[in-house]
Amino acid sequence: MNFEVLGNKPTRHGFGEGLLALGESNPNVVAIGADVTGSVMTNLFRDKFPDRFFSVGVAEQNATTIAVGFALSGKIPFFSSYSAFAAFRNADQLRVSVCYNDVNVKIVGGHSGITVGPDGATHQSLEEISFLRALPNLTLVVPCDYNQTKKATIAIGEMTGPVFMRIGRSPLPTFIPEDKPFVLGEAEVLTEGNDVALFANGIMVWQAILAAKELKARKGINARVINIHTIKPLDYETVIKAAMECGAAVTAEEHQVYGGLSGVISEAVCKNYPIPLEFVGMKDTFGGSGEPEELMEKFGLNWKAIYASALKAMERRDKGFSGVRKLTEIPEFNESL
Amino acid sequence: MELEVSFEQLTFENKTRQLEEYIPIATEIRKDIIKSLLLAKSGHSGGPLGITDVLTVLFFGGFMKYDSQNPNLATRDRFVLSAGHMAPVQYSILARAGYFPCDELKTLRKFGSRLQGHPGLDVHLPGIETSSGSLGQGISIAVGMAMSDYMLDKNSRDVYCVTGDGELQEGACWEAAMCAGAHKVSNLCWIVDNNDCQIDGRVKDVLSVYPIADKFKAFGFEVIEIDGHNYEDITFALNKFKENRNNNLKPTCIIAKTYMGNGVSFMHDQYKWHGNPPNMEQAITALNELNMEQGN
């Protein structure tokens, strides 16, 4: 499958425009701002619907519980800030007031991951998926490009229940066609192939597509790229089917591998159909300042890392990996991530 | 000595009352608190007994708009117990207002009960507006509710919220206060249960939150300081809130000076009773004292 690059925009633009569209179609949609509205693009909504926009200042804990109050009054509140502060500063509020209450609050964590770039490690949230996916009732979405984020924003606004959506700051290729439907909870198989499965989300989906192209061009390998845009609820069927048909897989995420997409896929695969897995993601380290491309190279978050990991996973499979084996038969034991 | 615990099905109307009419209601509620905690064998005695008088006037004096037979009434005022550990008093009041059978009070903290240790929205107990218990969150939810009513829907609903005084040590309280003051959320009535007790001791010793009134004034609140066991004071404060709501365009903070464990002599003003239930002997003593109060 060939993917045409349709543009080069950050996912936050898709969110801002999606929220605006939601605001136009549903008068119950409101937005809570915590000072960074121009960064996370809720300014579009604010300027169009000033009466439905509430500024609470740099106070993410309050923003979260204020949103709960709106939801308990029948509104559909969106609160967006940097993911570093919209998932951690307010962690207790998310756990008790949003998720335990099971209210219709939408939290959008922007500027996530190392591609925030020059701001450095304090602002590069790389752990929120691990935390958030342990919260009952929460739907967890990581869209892959501008078009998908716009669609996902509308989709989460139209469903009932708490949602966290993770988006980013820096531009990246838009490649999901504008007319492609977005279905929450349904993993997207972007390329067909039975040699190796490449599970990715967020900005790493495009990198997985690039890796699949190179695998085909250089080695004749047909990789199945699967976009896990909904971390929770997980599309088990698509994941297990890929494990069974490919027999080797790579996960790729702009996030710590501990508990992130790697954890999601490992849990599903290990329980149902164990296959060799390789992880592309942050290896238990903080980021730092730099341009997105420099950081992606340094931390191995690019197509090259996925390419190498795919070959490694396939080699392990071909050496006779079996999910059920005797302890004495473990050929290698790798403590590193 | 053993005690057969039962909860008679007795409910009270929400209407304008003479001050002395509150006494038997408050006593019934205090008895509920003692009995339900005795059966639960765990839970918080002191705080619920201390805030009983304020909540008795609020719920049964015609101040709050609600219909216990139609808990989701769209025009109802809302009550949030931010200090969720004081749940026993809220459960008793809701039962005595007719939201659910009084007999259900005996299930407090039990497996499968709708009367969770701290209020939970997931168990769908009529009258509970939100889960609470992680301190500092309920008040912020209440501010959000009030903003939705006042700034967006522009209706006449009010939101009442009780926090503890120790709870004010949570920074989240002040984020909520700043927000309510800045947005002039005048339909918010924030009641601070100022018993000066928390788990570790006196609030002033653990970490002083004083002066409370000056802080709230600085945050843009109309502040009313009252004796939280004086029905005339409580009535005055709740009337004053309604007046402020329409005239001052400021949120109201009622600082109710209360005594932890009020109404039970051996619990009176004893911070050790923050998180303990009475045993059988203590419960019998407490109920005898309360029955005498009711008899007088």
Keywords:
heterodimer; A: 337 residues; alpha/beta; Rossmann fold; seven-stranded mixed β-sheet; five-stranded mixed β-sheet; 13 helices; 14 strands; 39% helix; globular; B: 296 residues; five-stranded parallel β-sheet; two-stranded antiparallel sheet; 11% strand
Description of the structure:
The complex is a heterodimer of chains A (337) and B (296). Chain A contains 13 helices and 14 strands. Chain A has 337 residues and is α/β, with parallel strands linked by helices. Chain A has 2 domains: 168 residues, Thiamin diphosphate (ThDP)-binding fold, Pyr/PP domains (Rossmann fold), CATH 3.40.50; 132 residues, Rossmann fold, CATH 3.40.50. The relative contact order of chain A is 0.13. Chain A is globular and about 60 Å long. In chain A, α9 links the parallel β10 and β11. Chain B has 296 residues and is α/β, with parallel strands linked by helices. Chain B has a single domain, classed as Thiamin diphosphate (ThDP)-binding fold, Pyr/PP domains (Rossmann fold, 3-Layer(aba) Sandwich). In chain B, strands 1-2-3-7-6 form a 5-stranded parallel β-sheet, with helices on both faces. Chain B is globular, with a radius of gyration of 18 Å. The two termini of chain B are 25 Å apart. At the A-B interface, α4 and α6 of A face α4 and α5 of B.
